[in-house]
Task: structure prediction
Amino acid sequence: MTRAIVTTVLLACFLSSAAAATTLPREVTGVWIAADESRNECKRQDWKGVAASESDRLINITAKEREEWESGCTIRSVKASRAPSPGTRTADVDLSCGGEGMRWRSREIWHVQNVDGRKILAVTELRVTDYRTDDGRRAESQQASEPSTRLFLECK
Result:
């Protein structure tokens, strides 16, 4: 139920804006940690690269890619909406991803917002397509077929 509410709110925020851009909003770039019930403190320098980072909860987002532990995505296109309020941005992001012997395309909604002085990034994966092995053979997607949302906290 919570997932459906978050997905609906994110889609409404994105679709309510008529303006679109082709670049990733800078508010989204940086090092982030997957939100957990505890141990949510991190620093940018904790990110040491895809294979070298000590935590599988960390991600690094640049203007061109999202890097995660043992996987990564190239940003193919971005449609960013106008910020409905200061410190808030939403973008429709098309990604080309790979990791652990597989490749796929993903369409996601990224929403960043300040909450109690810390930036929170909600990543809603809308769909995964073209799931293949590294040698190009079609494969069955291991990811859920319905939208899913992950929350991240900014590392300072």
Notes: The chain has one domain: 2-154. Residues 1-21 have pLDDT under 50 and may be disordered. Residues 2-154 form one domain.
